[in-house]
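One-letter codes give the sequence; backbone shape is given numerically. An example follows:

. . .
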Amino acid sequence: MKVTSINRFKDSKLKSCVIGIGKFDGFHKGHQKIITEIVKMSKKYNCIPAIFTIKNYPAASNISSWKERLNAFKKNGIELCLWAEFAAIMKVSHHEFLKMLSSLCKIKAIVVGKNFKFGFHRKGDVNFLKSWATQKKVTVKLLKPVIINGRTVSSSIIKNMIRSSKFYEAAKMLGRWYSLKGVCIHGRAEGRNIGIPTINLQLENRNNPLSEGVYACMVKQRKRFHKAVFFYGKPRTFSNTETSFEIHIPETEIGNSYGRTFEVIPVKKIRNPEKFDSIEALANVIKNDIAKMNKIFAKEFDGIEKKV
């Protein structure tokens, strides 16, 4: 897949494309429906399946990182990803946006959702898009939203589910379990000092919608799954005020993990962050967290490692 900003894209030999437009945060079932249609139509018209998306969109949180979005595009058949920084196009009108897009590539068809809005102040809608497309002899495919349990699948709803620790409900809309990826870095070694060693991650998506707390989770590393607990947030007991992400995998020796990438799949929140009067009190609560994690997997999520 070719990934390039609109400022650098030059390909006079590029054949026509079928293109989708959107942020695609989370790459949920609604997004997947659009991508599937793009690939299907590109085969029909012998065109390039393409995407236009926005990088660094100013949101309170993002379900997926930029890297994860690109991987999803590539995995699902997109061959060209054109992107723009939000700051560069935030004041571009809907008229100018379509003019810009059509100057970059030969558009055979555009695939979007029926509620699609675009341009400065979101003044462009599907009626304007269809009118423009008719003049330019471009096909427009409007897709109905995906409905699950009576609710329209959307990134904002999924973010709220994740923030509220409703991971199973979020998974239904995402088409997969929500996960976070990160690289193991050196931590404070406080967990090891109390006999509960942790893996400290630097998250790929630091602007995620997850709320602070302790969670039962699955940890994937080198194609193996481990049941574990993790803490996310600012430690209350220690003087350090930086946000941390620490995993403890009971009764498992991972070995030297520094520099390795781990994928963490939260399944249920155990508790909110707390401040303890002593290290011993903290250690006792963590042991209780581990016991609760084991009960959660035994009663609610038995065999989950075969489903993620």
Notes: Residues 228 and 251 are 10 Å apart (CA to CA). Residues 279-299 form the longest helix (21 residues). The chain has a mean pLDDT of 91. The chain has two domains: 2-152, 179-306.
